[in-house]
Design brief:
The longest helix has 17 residues. The protein has a four-stranded antiparallel beta sheet with strand order 1-2-4-3, covered by helices on one side. It has three helices and four strands. β1 and β2 form a beta hairpin. The mean pLDDT is 93. By secondary structure, it is α+β, with helices and mostly antiparallel strands. The two termini are 24 Å apart. The chain is elongated and about 45 Å long.
């Protein structure tokens, strides 16, 4: 492990604490998830987080998913998350 990575970081919290908490742009966070307008953005963030944790010797499971508008509408769950891709850590 390099000297740079001797200190372990909670990368997910570092990201979520610094992202806006509203959905006016392409990426935002509610503090528990990172929300992305596109699947490709969610996958890129998923990969980046995995690599950052891996570089400091930690194994984490980074999850992505989608708040499907049709399913949310059918279940009466449409809200500000509907239509967004999410990234979270298990």
């Amino acid at each position: 492990m390099s000297e740079l990575m001797e200190e372990r970081f909670n990368w997910f919290s570092l990201f979520t604490d610094r992202l806006r908490d509203y959905s006016d742009e392409e990426v935002w966070s509610d503090g528990t998830e990172i929300l992305c307008r596109t699947e490709s953005a969610a996958k890129a963030i998923e990969d980046l987080l995995w690599q950052l944790y891996n570089a400091q010797g930690e194994e984490v499971t980074v999850l992505t998913g989608y708040y499907d508008p049709e399913e949310d509408e059918r279940n009466g769950e449409a809200d500000r998350y509907t239509g967004w891709w999410y990234v979270t850590i298990e």
